[in-house]
Amino acid sequence: MKKLLYKEMKLSANPLSYWFIAFSTMTMIPGYPILVGSFFICLGIFYTYQQVREYDDITYTVMLPVRKKDVVSAKYLFVLFIELIAFVLCALLTIIRMKFLGNAAPYVTNPLMNANAAYLGYLLAVFTSFNGIFLAGFFKTAYKIGKPFILFCVVGFIIIFMGEVLHHIPGLESLNDPANLSILQVAILAIGITVFMLYTWFSYKKALKDFEKINL
């Protein structure tokens, strides 16, 4: 598995999957829908799967002395690797923004989403939708990427829209506090972590079953 994961990272991966991690820095931009950065991170991963399809990487990989389930596992681990790096970077920038820049005028007067614990929860929700919709959808056929990606785009932007709307609802203003944690923020983050772990796991198990049925 270690060698197969190394192959995913060095051979199968499109360089844009790594470069697009840089969109995590959108966390620091005031007056901008910063959660869109999570979409671009997923878009970077999508480019890898586009390359996988064009180069017929799946057929090549299953011809190696590996089990079919290991093929799915390696590709899921690669995606989780990218998402983990992006999340950690976003979390670090969020801490910097809240602790040292939380009272800066551009953030205090920002009408759009501020970087805080709730933002990180929404970020995980977008990653969850990518894993559950696009990844699971890809392994139904191991080559169709258009429909599952479009479905992810729809769901992903609904999450982004809801994240931008919720803190404008009376009583939920603390969701957008630029400098202080709130119970609501922590709740959103906790839900995001839980749903990400569970839904990604169920998505992975479904992908294993679907991929085993494919006659390559």
TrEMBL record:
Keywords on record: Membrane, Transmembrane, Transmembrane helix
Pfam families xref list: ABC2_membrane_5
Transmembrane regions: 20-47, 76-96, 116-137, 149-169, 181-202
InterPro entries (alphabetical): ABC2_memb-like
Name of the protein described by the UniProt record: ABC transporter
